[in-house]
Amino acid sequence: MNTIQKIVDKLELQPHPEGGYFKEVYRSGGLINEENLGEGFTGQRNYATSIYFLLTSDSFSAFHRIRQDEIWHFYKGAPIKLHIISDAGIYSNTIIGNDIEKGQNPQFVVKAKDWFAAEVIDENAYALVGCTVSPGFDFSDFELPKRDILISRYPEHKNIITALTRL
């Protein structure tokens, strides 16, 4: 059994809609009421949630966004290149990994409502990370747009959007 399958089995990971595999490992007991969450939220949210997220070099995490900040934590494997397009259309990227001397970040925060996608840099490799969201994640806060919608909004980023969307 290969290393990727061992991690998927050991951590009981499931396919994620954006690509890769995941498992929720923490959901706080406390709740935030809708009136305290801010614009766009409906219902209650837990204070925080976290997941394991496994990405392989033969896939990618497609451009998506959520209403909350998301903190990425690097655990093991190859570095990940995280691509970000702000609501204002500014593109940036960062490398999430353990080699601090090469400018990699072991932890990085994607700001609420920024579009982001991720890919493993090395060939035939994987990356195991964790993602923490506060207020806690709910799939009603998740947007996975079609390619043409993002391109119409950010035509200057057509190439990266095309590369990291599926539809």
Automatic annotation (TrEMBL):
The lineage of its organism: Bacteria, Pseudomonadati, Bacteroidota, Flavobacteriia, Flavobacteriales. Pfam families: Cupin_5. This is Cupin domain-containing protein. Residues 5-144 form the DUF985 domain.
